[in-house]
């Protein structure tokens, strides 16, 4: 088995005020792993410790205890940073530069020769739909354009790991979809992506793995299947509900929901066959039988909505 | 390559820094205002008062040059402090440090950016010295490198001190401390008149610890009022410059150490 791309082991970070001695525990014994090629979402309510976690991962902050490995190196190690693309939350740029000059600046910081990079820079800006704005000063960019530029610079140098802190913040629905598509294509290329986001429906669409933190503590970590695919209920959709079947449904403990396109019956998996046959025998047209999968949003609210708690 | 990129970017930022531009404009206005009485005195010179007027002119020239030299130290300190603090405040440091850049490389790049700006300042000061001396009717008989290297080393010291302080304090606090240190350094200098009132056991240790700008002042070798170079051997030059460079290096290394352990986040 290959080494994890990201490994957090019992990581704790406490913020201390210089005067006054107040202590805020941003992360407490957080442990998780992200395998190479996975897209992992780092979720939590505001103030849960997501940005602290990402800052530790990038080597901007030092943990008080615990061990972290990024691509096999310590956080902040230049060998790891050579393979990482990073988009911070509310990305800030040198406003006097144009997108083209900023990309060239970041290219030079990567230690690569800047000469002959024009084509690559143009391609990356085209990817994030900033072509035509290459020479415009960043100060004149909209927030969405700045965010897209952040994503473009993160992709410089073909990184193996992308760390994205709220990559879709400030983007309109079309922009969010573009970023989502971009992440899907990066996932298809085998890149590892570690992102924090509040847009759970988007996370659900592209992520393989989820790490949920609340008040600095890990509340749940696992693959999407592990977290969402363990429901014991199925949903049977039929065209109409004949009156004689009602006692059988009540006996099964089914929940009935009538809609414009049919009737939705939710029942325990154990009784699905029995109920489907009864409905069929009563002359109903069974349109679909699908397992009920709770959404990530439901799970998230269940875990952190009431304050959450450690696993 | 990375250090050079950071240095040039820092220098580019200074050219657009409104506060630095404003400081420079105000200072240029003060210098021009001070030149007015000098030119007036020069115009009023007659054969009978020539010697007295010449002394006045040269006195004004010397004052302008001292002011400019002192302002340079403060400019170096402010620029160094601001260059790091602005990156922290705006959050641009996060994008830079996410690149394969070591923390010391970032700080060294910033320092070199400051020194690049100060090199231009020193060149301007150098040109002004010759211009003012010419206007004052004197000719500077100095080896030019003294007028170029000494201020550069002095400014390197101030920039390094500011860089160390800004890794711990806010840029305004840093500037205030540097300003205080420079005033104190002048007070404890052996040449200072006020130093006589200080107790000897306080003055000497302070003089050794503080950036001794009087030691690195080009005035030690050149007095514009006489416009002649004092004869100083190479060993004296080398020792004095080595002192300044060593001082700057120690502070820069301390700044790098302090910056290494600093949390990088948007302030």
Short structural description:
Chain A is an alpha/beta fold. Chain A has helices at residues 50-58, 78-81, 99-109, 118-127, 143-154, 173-188, 200-206, 224-228, 246-252, 272-281, 296-304, and strands spanning 6-16, 23-34, 39-43, 65-70, 84-87, 161-165, 192-196, 209-214, 217-223, 233-238, 255-259, 262-268, 286-291. In chain A, the strands form three sheets. Chain A has a six-stranded mixed β-sheet, sandwiched between helices.
Characterize the structure shown.
The complex is a heterodimer of chains A (311) and B (267). Chain A is of the alpha/beta class and 311 residues long. Chain A has two domains: 6-228, P-loop containing nucleotide triphosphate hydrolases (Rossmann fold, 3-Layer(aba) Sandwich), CATH 3.40.50.300; 233-291, Alpha-Beta Plaits. Helices cover 32% and strands 27% of the residues of chain A. Chain A is built from eleven helices and 13 strands. Chain A has helices at 50-58, 78-81, 99-109, 118-127, 143-154, 173-188, 200-206, 224-228, 246-252, 272-281, 296-304, and strands at residues 6-16, 23-34, 39-43, 65-70, 84-87, 161-165, 192-196, 209-214, 217-223, 233-238, 255-259, 262-268, 286-291. In chain A, the strands form three sheets. In chain A, strands 5-6-7-3-8-9 form a six-stranded mixed beta sheet, with helices on both faces. In chain A, helix 6 links the parallel strand 6 (161-165) and strand 7 (192-196). Chain B is mainly α and 267 residues long. Chain B has one domain (2-260). Chain B is 75% helix and 1% strand. Chain B has nine helices and two strands; from the N terminus they run H-H-H-H-H-H-H-H-E-E-H. Chain B has a two-stranded antiparallel sheet. In chain B, helix 3 packs antiparallel against helix 5, helix 3 (50-90) packs antiparallel against helix 7 (171-188) and helix 5 (103-135) runs antiparallel to helix 9 (234-260). The longest helix of chain B is centred in the first third of the chain and has 41 residues, at 50-90. The mean pLDDT of chain B is 82. Chain A binds chain B through residues 55, 58-62, 78-79, 81-82, 84, 86, 88, 90-94, 96, 105-106, 108-111, 150, 153, 163, and chain B through 1-2, 5-6, 9, 12-13, 16, 90-92, 94-102, 261, 263-266.
